[in-house]
C-alpha cells in the first residue's frame, strides 16, 4: 500500500508522529521501525534543551495534555547518535525541526539536508517566534510562509519539506496556502491545540508549564476538519493526517477526508504495537471496500453526495 | 484480586513478564476497558512473581483515582493488558552485605522480591516500613518473618514508632551496620532517606515515581533531574533510565524545576 | 452560593448553556428551572429558521458533534410563547441572540431589551457574517467588537451584555478585549470549536452539514485554557465558563481558572438532572476546601505557585 | 439478558417506567459505564413491561456499534441507567377496528405491547413481520399465536415470503380489510408502508427513527420534516413530538434535507 510524499515513495502510509516514538530505539522492542511508512523524529533543535519542569503530563477525557518543551540533546548529538541508528537499519526518517527564528530553522535545514537517512524535513511551526513576542509561527500565515521558504531554500532541492500546522488558528486554510506558497511540498496536521487542566486538589494548573498541547482521540474531530478543509482548498498537496488515530477506522477517516498518509502519536503510549496494527486494519478496511490502491480512497468523502446515501446506511 | 489491609493485591497470569522479572521492575496496565476515556496506562511496581500457570505477576495498589478504581473492580479471569517488565531493576551487591530496605506506603510492596534476591546472595536484610496508619503499612508480618529486624513506623502511632521511616533511619542504620540502603516511596521520603545515607556515607538506591504517559521511553514526560557520571545534570527519564537511581544522583530539591545548570536549561535557545 | 454577572445577582453559579436546555419546558420534568442560576435560551434569531438537514449529530470520543443550525421559531414566537413561560415561573433567563449582520443583532437587542424576564443578553458571535463571506464574527476582533457595541447601544443600559467566544481563534484574549471594549459586561466561553467526523461505512461526512460544533468533555481542556488566559488578561471581567462540564470537579476546574459562573451543556443530554447535581457537588467541594464564598475560589489557580505544592500532593 | 435469534433481550427492573408505559414509548440507556468516551444515550423501544419486582421493562436490540456491544455484555444484576418512558405512544382507535401491525427487523419488538392493548379493546390484530433473514424476524411465533393472521417475509426467502413487508402489504390489507396500519422499522420501510396505505386510503401510524442526542427534546438533533395540522412543514423532533406520527404527515422523500417550503427554510435569514 504505497503512498507518496511529493516524489518520495513510502512503502505504506503509516508514520509515527513527532515526539511520540522516542529516538526509534525505544520503539524497537515493540515494532520494526523499518516496516513503518516512516518514523518522524521528535522536534530537533539547534542547541540541547532541558525542556519543561514536571509535571509534564495530565490526562483529560479521551485526551492527554503534554508540556515536554522539546527536550532533546540538540542537532549535533542527533546527527552523531540518533539518526545513524535509524539510517543503518534503513528506516525512512522524517526529521522534525524547530527553532525560535527563521534563521535557526534555516540553519537546522542546512545541517540536516545532506545527512544520510533523512527522508524529509518536517517544519514544526508550533514554536514561539522570539522575534514576535513568542507568538507561534503556526498562527500567522506570513510568519509560517517565511519559515517554510527559508527551510525550502536551505534544504537540498530533492528533499521534501513538510509544514506542520496547528488547528487552533483562525483559518487553517490560509496558513496552509502560505506554507505551500513558501515551498512546502506536503502538509502535516494537526499539531496539538493548546489546552489546560487544573488539579482541583492542589488548586493549581496540572502541568508545571500551565498550558500544554492536547492530543489523543479527543482532538480527532479537529484533525478531520483541518484535513478536510485543506484538502478541499489544495487538492494537489499531499497531507499527512494525525490527531487521535487509534485504529484503522480512525486512519481511514483521515484518508477519506484527504490524507495520503497517517501518523500515530499518543496511541503509541497506550499501545506501542499500534503502528503495524493500524496499518493492518487500514489495509483490511480498504480491501473490504474494494480499493486496490490507497490513492483511490484519498479524499473520497469529498465526492458530491447522492440522496440515496442515507438509505444505503439503513439496516 | 485480594484485599490486604488498605491495599488491593492483584495476581495476573503473565509468563512473559514473570520470566524476565528482576526486583525493581514495574509494569504498566491499560485501564478502563474498551471505549474508555482514560488513555494512559497506569504504572505499578511488581510485588512478586510466582511460577503458577506458567508465571504470574502480583501487583499491590491503593485506589487513588479512576484507573485504580477500575482495577479494583476486576473479577477473576477478567483479561488485563499489561506491558513489562519495565525500567531498570535494583542493582544487587556482588558480595554478601547488610542491606536495609526502606518502604513507605505501597512502596513497601516492591521490596519483598528484592529481599528474596538479596537473601539468596547471602545478604543480611533489615526492613523499615512506614505509612500514615497501621492498615497502610504493607507487609509488616512478612518483613518480620523474613528479615533480621523489621522496624515499623506510622504517622498516627497506631503501629510501631510514631513518625516517618526517615525519623527512625539513623538509629536503624547504626544498629544494623547497614552497608547499603534500598528505598521506595514518595519523593519526599526518598529525599529524606538519601540525606540520612549521605550522613552515614553509605550508598542508597531509590526507586522514584514521576507521572508517566508511556512508561517505555517514548514521551519524555517522566523526567527527573539526575546527575550523570560526568557530573552533568540531565532531565532523565524515570521509566527507562530509572525508576531506580543512586539516591545522591537525584536532585530531589530540584524535582519540579529545570535546575539552571541542567544540560540544555533555558538561557540561549528559546523555541517551545 | 451567590454570584454576580456584572451587577446582576444570581442565586447560584450554575447555568444551562445555550441550545442545550430546549425552551426550559423540556427540562422541567427533570429540574426546577427556577432553581438554576439562570437558564440560557437557544440562540434566538429574527426570522424562523428550519436549521440544517439531518443527520445533525455524531458521537466522537468524549465528544459530540452537532450541526443543528440554530433551528427556532424566530423572535416573535419566542416572545409570545417561550419567554413568558419562563418569566411566569420566575426563572432567570439569559437570552442568546444571533444574526448575520450587525444590524440584525441590534434589531434583536431592541426587540428583547424591554421584554419581562430577560436577565441578560448573550451575543452568540459564532454566527457567519453575511457581509464578510460567512466568516464568523467570533474569529475577528473588530467584527466581534462591532457586534457587541451595537447590542450594547440597542439594549437598555441596565441589561448586561455577555459576549460568547469560541476557542478556535488565533488569540482568544484579543477577541475578549475587543468585546469588552465594545461594552460587554461579561464573557461566556467556550462555544463549540468546529470539528468533523467521517462515517467510514458510508464514506461520507457523518453530519449532513459536513462540519459541526464539538462539545462535551473532549473540549474541556480548551475551555479551561480560554478561561485561564482571559481571566489573566481581564481579571475584572466576569466569565461564564463552559465546555465539557459533567461534575462539580469540572465546574471547580473552570472556577479556579477564573469563571464566576459555569454552564452545563452537553451533559444535560446524558443526565438531565445534571444542573442541580453539579451545583451540589461544587458546593461540597468548596466547603471541603474551606471556602465560604464562591468569589474566594474564582481564579485561585492563578496565585503564584509555591515550591511545596508538589510535596503536598504526595500521599 | 437473553438471546432471541439475532437479538438480545434485556429485562430491567424499572417500576417508574413500567407504570407509565404505553405502547410506542421508548427509553434511553446510558452506555459504557464510568469514564466512558461514549457520551450519548442509546434509544430503544420498550418491547414489554411486566409487573415482576414492582415493574420490569424489556428491550430488544441488535448489536450495531460500541453502545449496543456494551449493553450485550451486561450480566444479571448489573445496574443500568434508563430514562423513560419517552415519546408519544401509538394512538389507539376509540372503537373496535381491524389493525394491521407491520414490523421490520427489530421494529417488530415495539408491536407486541401494542397488539395486547388493541386486543384488550376488542380490535382484530394482524401482523406482517419481515427481516433480511429468518433469524432476524423477531417474534414470529408470538405473532402467529396471538394474531388473526401473521405474514412473514425475508429478503433471502429463508422464512415466509421472499421480499419485504412492503411487497406483501397490498395483499394483506385486501385480505384482512384492515382499518388502520401501525408500522415500525427503517425509514425506507415506513415510507413504502405509508405509500401503500395511501393507495388503500387507510390511516397509518409510523414510529420513526432518527439519530437522537438527548431523547427528551433538548437538543434538536432528531428532527424530521413533518406536515402540521395547518399544512405547514416543520422540522419536528422525533423524540418528543414523535416517534409516532401519522404516516402521510411525514415527508419521507425529504428526510435528510430541509424542504424548500419548510417553515424557516433557508432563503431570507442566513445566520448559522
Ligand atoms: C514506576 C511506578 C511504580 C508505581 N507503583 C505503584 C504501586 O506499586 N502501587 C500503587 O498503588 N501505585 C503505584 N504507582 C502509582 C500509580 O501509578 C498511580 O497510583 C496510578 O497511576 C493512579 O492512577 P489513577 O487512575 O487511580 O489516578 P488518577 O489520579 O486518576 O490518574 C490520573 C493520571 O495521573 C497518573 N498518576 C496519578 N498518580 C500517579 C503517581 N503517583 N505516579 C504516577 N502516575 C500517577 C496516572 O497514571 C494517570 O495518568 C507507581 C507509579 C510509578 C510511576
Ligand atoms: C426511538 C428509537 C427507538 C429505537 N429502538 C430500537 C430497538 O428497539 N432495538 C434496537 O436494536 N435499536 C433501536 N433503535 C436504534 C438504536 O438506538 C441504535 O441501534 C443504537 O443507538 C446504536 O448504538 P451503538 O452504540 O451500538 O451504535 P453506534 O453506531 O456506535 O452509535 C453511534 C451513535 O449513533 C447513534 N445511532 C446509531 N444508530 C442509530 C439508530 N439506528 N437510531 C438512532 N441512533 C442511532 C447512537 O445512539 C450513538 O449516538 C432505536 C432508535 C430510536 C431513535
Ligand atoms: C508527548 C508528546 C510530544 C510531542 N512532541 C512533538 C514534537 O516534538 N514536535 C511536533 O511537531 N509535535 C509533537 N507532538 C505532537 C504530535 O506529533 C501530534 O501532532 C499530535 O500529538 C496529534 O497526534 P496524536 O493525537 O495521535 O498524538 C507531541 C505530542 C505528544 C503527545
Ligand atoms: C446541540 C447543541 C446546540 C447548541 N446550540 C447553541 C446555540 O444555539 N447557541 C450557542 O451560543 N451555543 C450553542 N451550543 C454551544 C453550547 O452552548 C456550549 O457553548 C458548548 O456546547 C460547550 O459546552 P458543553 O461541552 O457543556 O456542551 C450548542 C451546543 C450543542 C451541543
Ligand atoms: S513515561 Fe514516557 S518517557 Fe517515561
Ligand atoms: S433527541 Fe434531542 S431533541 Fe430529540
Automatic annotation (TrEMBL), chains A, C:
Calcium as a keyword? no
Gene Ontology terms: cellular component? cytoplasm
Known cofactor(s): FMN
* SUPFAM superfamilies noted in UniProt: FMN-linked oxidoreductases
Query: Per the record, what are the reactions this protein catalyses?
Result: (S)-dihydroorotate + A = orotate + AH2
Q: Which residues form the active site?
A: 127
Which Gene Ontology biological process is one annotated for this entry?
'de novo' pyrimidine nucleobase biosynthetic process
Per UniProt, substrate binds at 66-70, 124
InterPro entries this protein is in? Answer: Aldolase_TIM, DHO_dehydrogenase, DHOD_1B, Dihydroorotate_DH_1, Dihydroorotate_DH_1_2, Dihydroorotate_DH_cat, Dihydroorotate_DH_CS, Dihydroorotate_DH_I
The answer to whether keyword Oxidoreductase applies is yes
Q: Which PANTHER family does the entry mention?
A: DIHYDROOROTATE DEHYDROGENASE (FUMARATE), DIHYDROOROTATE DEHYDROGENASE (QUINONE), MITOCHONDRIAL-RELATED
Membership in a protein family = Belongs to the dihydroorotate dehydrogenase family. Type 1 subfamily.
Task: Tell me, in a sentence or two, what this protein's role is.
Answer: Catalyzes the conversion of dihydroorotate to orotate.
Q: What is this protein called?
A: Dihydroorotate dehydrogenase
TrEMBL record, chains B, D:
Required cofactor names? FAD; [2Fe-2S] cluster
Q: What is the name attached to this protein's record?
A: Dihydroorotate dehydrogenase electron transfer subunit
Q: What is a single molecular function from GO for this protein?
A: 2 iron, 2 sulfur cluster binding
State which residue ranges cross the membrane. Answer: none
Question: Has the keyword Metal-binding been applied to this entry?
Answer: yes
Flavoprotein keyword on record = yes
Cofactor binding note from Swiss-Prot or TrEMBL: Binds 1 FAD per subunit.
Q: Which residues bind [2Fe-2S] cluster?
A: 214, 219, 222, 239
Q: Which InterPro entries match?
A: Cyt_c3_hydrogenase_gsu (IPR012165), Dihydroorotate_DH_ele_sf (IPR037117), Dihydroorotate_DH_Fe-S-bd (IPR019480), FAD-bd_FR_type (IPR017927), FNR_nucleotide-bd (IPR039261), PyrK_electron_transfer (IPR050353), Riboflavin_synthase-like_b-brl (IPR017938)
Q: Which SUPFAM superfamilies match?
A: Ferredoxin reductase-like, C-terminal NADP-linked domain (SSF52343), Riboflavin synthase domain-like (SSF63380)
Homology family: Belongs to the PyrK family.
Amino acid at each position: 500500500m504505497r503512498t507518496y510524499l511529493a516524489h518520495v515513495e513510502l512503502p505504506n502510509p503509516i508514520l509515527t508522529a513527532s515526539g511520540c516514538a522516542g529516538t526509534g530505539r525505544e520503539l524497537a522492542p515493540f515494532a520494526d521501525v523499518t516496516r513503518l511508512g516512516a518514523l518522524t523524529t521528535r522536534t530537533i533543535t539547534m542547541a540541547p534543551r532541558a525542556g519543561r519542569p514536571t509535571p509534564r503530563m495530565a490526562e483529560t477525557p479521551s485526551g492527554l495534555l503534554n508540556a515536554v518543551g522539546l527536550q532533546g540533546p540538540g542537532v549535533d548529538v542527533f546527527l552523531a547518535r540518533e539518526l545513524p541508528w535509524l539510517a543503518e537499519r534503513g528506516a525512512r526518517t522524517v526529521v522534525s525541526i524547530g527553532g525560535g527564528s527563521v534563521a535557526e530553522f534555516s540553519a537546522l535545514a542546512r545541517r540536516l539536508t545532506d545527512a544520510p537517512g533523512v527522508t524529509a524535513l518536517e517544519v514544526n511551526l508550533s514554536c514561539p517566534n522570539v522575534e514576535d513576542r513568542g507568538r507561534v509561527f503556526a498562527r500567522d500565515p506570513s510568519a509560517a510562509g517565511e519559515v517554510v521558504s527559508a527551510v525550502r531554500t536551505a534544504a537540498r532541492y530533492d528533499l521534501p519539506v513538510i509544514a506542520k500546522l496547528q488547528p487552533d488558528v483562525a483559518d487553517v486554510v490560509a496558513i496552509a496556502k502560505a506554507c505551500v506558497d513558501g515551498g512546502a511540498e506536503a502538509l502535516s496536521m494537526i499539531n496539538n491545540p493548546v489546552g489546560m487542566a487544573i488539579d482541583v486538589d492542589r488548586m493549581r494548573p496540572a502541568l508545571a508549564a500551565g498550558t500544554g498541547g492536547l492530543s489523543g482521540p479527543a482532538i480527532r474531530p479537529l484533525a478531520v476538519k483541518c484535513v478536510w478543509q485543506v484538502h478541499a482548498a489544495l487538492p494537489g498537496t499531499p497531507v499527512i493526517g494525525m490527531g487521535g488515530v487509534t485504529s484503522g477506522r480512525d486512519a481511514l477517516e483521515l484518508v477519506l477526508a484527504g490524507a495520503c498518509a497517517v501518523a500515530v502519536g499518543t496511541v503509541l503510549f497506550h499501545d506501542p504495537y499500534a503502528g503495524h496494527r493500524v496499518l493492518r486494519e487500514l489495509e483490511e478496511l480498504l480491501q473490504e471496500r474494494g480499493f486496490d490502491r490507497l490513492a483511490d480512497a484519498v479524499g473520497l468523502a469529498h465526492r458530491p453526495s447522492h440522496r440515496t446515501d442515507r438509505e444505503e446506511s439503513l439496516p | 484480586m485480594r484485599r490486604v489491609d488498605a491495599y488491593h493485591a492483584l495476581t495476573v497470569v503473565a509468563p512473559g513478564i514473570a520470566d524476565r522479572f528482576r526486583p525493581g521492575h514495574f509494569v504498566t496496565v491499560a485501564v478502563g476497558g474498551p471505549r474508555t476515556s482514560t488513555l494512559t496506562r497506569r504504572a505499578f511496581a511488581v510485588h512478586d512473581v510466582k511460577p503458577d500457570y506458567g508465571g504470574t505477576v502480583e501487583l499491590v495498589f491503593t485506589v487513588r483515582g479512576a484507573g485504580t478504581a477500575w482495577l479494583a473492580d476486576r473479577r477473576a479471569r477478567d483479561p488485563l493488558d499489561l506491558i513489562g517488565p519495565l525500567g531498570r531493576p535494583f542493582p544487587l551487591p556482588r558480595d554478601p552485605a547488610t542491606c536495609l530496605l526502606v518502604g513507605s506506603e505501597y512502596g513497601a510492596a516492591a521490596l519483598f522480591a528484592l529481599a528474596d534476591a538479596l537473601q539468596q546472595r547471602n545478604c543480611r536484610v533489615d526492613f523499615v516500613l512506614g505509612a500514615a496508619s497501621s492498615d497502610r503499612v504493607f507487609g509488616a508480618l512478612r518483613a518480620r518473618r523474613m528479615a533480621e529486624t523489621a522496624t515499623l513506623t506510622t504517622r498516627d502511632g497506631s503501629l510501631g514508632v510514631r513518625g516517618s521511616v526517615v525519623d527512625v533511619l539513623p538509629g536503624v542504620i547504626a544498629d544494623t551496620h547497614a552497608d547499603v540502603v534500598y528505598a521506595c516511596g514518595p519523593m519526599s521520603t526518598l529525599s529524606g532517606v538519601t540525606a540520612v545515607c549521605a550522613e552515614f556515607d553509605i550508598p542508597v538506591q531509590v526507586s522514584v515515581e514521576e507521572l508517566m504517559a508511556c512508561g517505555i521511553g517514548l514521551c519524555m514526560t517522566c523526567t527527573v533531574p539526575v546527575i550523570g557520571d560526568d557530573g552533568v545534570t540531565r532531565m532523565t527519564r524515570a521509566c527507562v533510565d530509572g525508576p531506580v537511581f543512586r539516591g545522591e544522583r537525584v536532585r530531589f530539591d530540584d524535582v519540579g524545576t529545570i535546575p539552571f545548570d541542567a544540560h540544555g536549561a533555558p538561557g540561549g535557545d528559546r523555541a517551545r
